[in-house]
Amino acid sequence: MKFIGNISFSMYMIHLQVFGAVTLAFGISGLACVTLSIFLSVSLGAVLTKFVETPMRNLLRTETKDTQQQQHLPSLAAVKPVPAPDHSL
How far is CA 9 from the centre of its chain? Predict the structure, then answer.
């Protein structure tokens, strides 16, 4: 179950394209088309997760951490609040 959870986003992104490709390429419909589409969606989802999604996620995390460390942004605790304007006449 964890495996399906890990590849679910990739499967979601490609399942419709896989279904269309199976329908056009093999000219089949019905249960055979659905079965083949599910098998291919799971397989391609696993490949995309391993070779595209996970490496990109790791790369973006590394770049985000490096950027935050380089900027040395002040914490919100160091910012003084601005007083509200006086609207009395």
Answer: 6
> Domain residues of the chain, as ranges?
2-59
Residue 39 in this model has a pLDDT that exceeds 90: yes
Catalogue the long-range contacts made by 46-55 (C-beta closer than 8 Å, 24 or more residues apart): 46/3, 46/7, 46/10, 48/7, 48/10, 48/13, 48/14, 49/6, 49/7, 49/9, 49/10, 52/10, 53/9, 53/10
74 — pLDDT class (breaks 50, 70, 90): low
DSSP secondary structure, 24-81, as one string: HHH---THHHHHHHHHHHHHHHHHHIIIIIHHHHHHHHHHHHHHHHHHTPPPGGGSPP
Q: Which two tokens stand for residue 58?
A: 């790791």
pLDDT of residue 55: 92
Please give the model's pTM, rounded to 2 decimal places. 0.66
